[in-house]
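Onboarding guide, step 5: your first structure request.
Type a short instruction followed by the sequence, for example:

Predict the 3D structure of this protein.
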Amino acid sequence: MEIARGHDLTGRRAVVTGAASGMGAAAATRLMAEGVAVLGVDRVSEGIVGTHTLVADLGDGDSIAVIVGAAESLLGGCDILINNAGVCPAGPFAEMTEEQWHSALGINVTAVMKLTRALLPLLAASGRGRVVNVGSIMSRYGDAGLVAYTTSKHAVLGLTRALAMELGPHGITVNCVQPGAIATGMTRGLFEDTTGAKDYYASRSALGRVGQPEDVADVMVFLATDDARFITGQGIMVDGGVMVHS
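The system replies with structure tokens like these:
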């Protein structure tokens, strides 16, 4: 028996943040392949993927209204929100600056809350709203040198669970993907500049490799489909099995 591949999401509309590279670009590409009109948002103009694109910095307080306005005018609504944009300040806790702390919490958590809340009327009007947040395996444990990032990703998982309960009556599901070591722009410096780093993270995976953006994007897109209609409030590990032995 031939198994059907992919999902027909023709006619649906999505906002994807952090869409100029990595998992955001991969998610936007996959959504468009499934027939979705995508508003790709990033703070840099080069490489943004989307049916429509918008340069907006989520650290700027005015950006949320601009994104919502673009979703209304360019897409005519919003069925899917993928909160992918994020930052990862790293370094010893004793040397961490307040700017790094506020940046991690501001982009990784507060902007997710604000954009989701601002798009809520459109997601509710959809009747099949889907919110997919991007956490991390750091949503479940901690590591030295990543205090601000780890704190923010714990918060993303908590936000996901609370919103699932509150937005469920509006027909909106809210879930969180939790990537492990993924080869993206954010990790390029670590994998390329640190001796043995890529091999180390690959060795921790049950599959013997680091992940690719598409590995996570495919799960994001699945969570946006009708096949995932009864999944909400979940943190889904996409880590190649790293956490199996943790």
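Each response can be followed by summary notes, for example: The longest helix spans residues 98-126.
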